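Recall that a protein's primary structure is simply its ordered list of amino acids. Everything else, from secondary elements to tertiary packing, is in principle encoded there. The following example makes that idea concrete.
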Amino acid sequence: MKKILRFFAYLIGSIISLLILVVIGWILACYIYGDADFEEDISISVTISAAETPKGTISGILRSPDDLEKYLLKRQRPYYNHLPFEGDLNIESFDFENYDYIFCEGRPILRLSKQFWDSCSSYDHTKLIPVEPIWGEEISHKVYIYKITPKNKYRIACP
């Protein structure tokens, strides 16, 4: 009888220990793979010109002034040689030493949800964490500029 009671005590103790480990693992996974920290940079005010239709274009994560210049050159109108943006867009306004940036044209981002894996993860040798933007419903002519911390940790998830 003692052996049976001891066996059930070990079994119940093992199950409780396993449940505690699973709960702690779940809490850590939620903490590590929750949402990325970001905030809108309200010091820079840029809008899409009234002649353009906002499409919700996203820039990708811009890590340096060179990335920003490449993005702006890509968004430049081919025949008019100027950007579809209105406002004061000055590269010196960006703090690339402390933040990465994302430009979102016409739609706000509510959350940047961290992903465990995406189709580019096996090719990503930098081990950046993929993030997927969760969009707001509002469509406007505003260009939302977001600062992301910590720097050089995230990338936009592949489709």
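The beta strands are 37-40, 46-48, 85-87, 100-105, 109-114, 129-135, 142-149, 154-156. Residues 94 and 122 are 32 Å apart (CA to CA).
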